[in-house]
């Protein structure tokens, strides 16, 4: 009988970093549950796609339930789904607040709460959360208080969960990103965005995927906020 594969849940999996993580985890031998608001089915028996909006109460738990029903376990959750809105603080609207906190906080909470319950029963697991280095190194050129409010909280809860669940074999880590070259950034902005990083370039999706793969395969690392930001968090 073949050994049951480990299972990774990836949110925000329809494009960008999330989409790139699917083949990376499959290469490690994981079955993957790929969740996004809109995502196409794929012809891979070890890949389950789930259409869900993590900002909606209950959708996060539904993603985890789908993983358990299909594969019987949850070993890793990559909380990749996120919203970033850059505005002067006083120009944020109630709708902005609801959108950003809904995905960044509610999404993390619902998915992770259900996943950690399953991981506790099976004896271990791993949470990885995508954050931003603007939490550590605010920039007046990129006013983003809602990102700091939400992602700063996710950095803190990453450390809290790492300690709370260390004796149950569950690790929690985060990757804290600079600006990554994804379709959300028009090419006309790339030169200016590159200058935000001491290394003088934007990050690539592969930089993020490789960092997450490191954390996945680093059993002695937990409570880590791994900066993948071209030196941005260190200063200018």
Automatic annotation (TrEMBL):
InterPro entries: NAD(P)-bd_dom_sf, SDR_fam. One of its GO terms (molecular function) is oxidoreductase activity, acting on the CH-OH group of donors, NAD or NADP as acceptor. Keywords: Oxidoreductase. Gene3D superfamilies: NAD(P)-binding Rossmann-like Domain. Pfam families: adh_short_C2. Belongs to the short-chain dehydrogenases/reductases (SDR) family. This is NAD(P)-dependent dehydrogenase, short-chain alcohol dehydrogenase family. It comes from Mycolicibacterium rutilum (Mycobacterium rutilum).
């Amino acid at each position: 009988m073949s050994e049951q594969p480990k299972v990774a849940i990836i949110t925000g999996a329809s494009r960008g970093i999330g989409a790139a993580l699917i083949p990376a985890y499959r290469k490690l031998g994981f079955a993957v549950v790929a969740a996004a608001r809109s995502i196409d089915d794929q012809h891979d028996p070890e890949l389950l796609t789930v259409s869900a909006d993590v900002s909606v109460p209950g959708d996060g738990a539904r993603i985890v339930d789908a993983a358990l029903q299909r594969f019987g376990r949850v070993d890793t959750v990559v909380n990749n789904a996120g919203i970033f809105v850059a505005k002067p603080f006083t120009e944020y609207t109630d709708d902005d607040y609801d959108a950003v906190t809904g995905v960044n906080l509610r999404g993390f909470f619902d998915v992770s709460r259900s996943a950690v319950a399953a991981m506790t029963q099976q004896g271990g697991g791993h949470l990885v959360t995508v954050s931003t280095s603007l939490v550590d190194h605010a920039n007046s050129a990129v006013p983003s208080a809602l990102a700091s409010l939400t992602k700063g909280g996710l950095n803190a809860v990453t450390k809290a969960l790492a300690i709370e669940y260390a004796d149950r074999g569950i690790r929690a880590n985060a990757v804290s990103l600079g600006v990554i070259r994804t379709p959300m950034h028009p090419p006309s902005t790339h030169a200016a965005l590159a200058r935000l990083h001491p290394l003088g370039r934007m990050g690539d999706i592969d930089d993020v995927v490789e960092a997450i793969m490191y954390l996945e395969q680093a059993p002695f690392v937990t409570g880590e906020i791994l900066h993948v930001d071209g030196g941005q968090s260190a200063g200018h």
